[in-house]
Predict the structure.
Amino acid sequence: AQPQAQPAPAAGASALEPIKTVEIGKNRELVVNGKPFLPIMSWAQPSRMYPKLARLGFNTFCGTADPNAAQAVGRYAVASFRPNWIGHPYLLAWIHGDEPDMPGPGDPNNPQARRAPRTSPDRLLAVYQKIKEADPVRPVFVTFTGGFARETRETDEAARTKLYGEFIQGADVVGFDIYPIYGSGYAGHLNWVGSAVGQLRELGGPRPLYAWIETSKGSKWMTYEKQPDVLPRHTRNEVWQAIINGATAIGYFTHAWVPKPETTFAPTPEMQDELKRLNAQLARLAPVLLAGPASVKIEMKLVGEGTELAC
């Protein structure tokens, strides 16, 4: 029997309980204090934003996160490793430096050569092992660029699988960022998000998966005046693509680099309304979304002259 979805408290109204245990379940889900937990994450937000994010239904702050400030609003943190935070009751996990697979400096003597990742898989693994030696209890996250996906790479499949298969050994939980509209202005690339989750699932095995989802325009890679708006329907579509393809955590990228001044939180009021609605939905459905495959078998057949369906 599948667990039933339970009503969630109003966003920001109820504090999460202190963490005693964090495990990875059989369905690639994070299990906190014996119960499945679906992180709904913000990225690199100042602690002054935590109360607002909590009201919008974020339950986890990730990237430059402070577990003490997270505790103050009853939410969890995924933080860069600090020995003095080991065992913190509101520390969900640690996270590596962002995007280790980002191409590093090129070879000035051979500008056409493919650039190596700025962090090698061996280096990532060494840092992971050091963290796990200090704290074997909390899992370690790593976020890759969208460059791992087949849609964005020119290299052959064997090389892609080898490189990221090695990278993944340096983390317990893996994710990526692909922003079809914010990054490139192509709504036709929306399906890359779901496809990439499926590809990371193939590479990651039993590891929980997450995707960073775009929420605003403001990219520094395109002329601002030519950038299309990131609309609530785009964000909603990408979130459910990720979930349907196996994501067991969701993160939102909210930064805008242009126009000046830069801001860490740029969603429009309409997008904020959508985030609050969507996050409440994810929290309410989390027990089902993180459960195993349904055991119910659905059949459909034609009857009579083919004008009726029997289910």
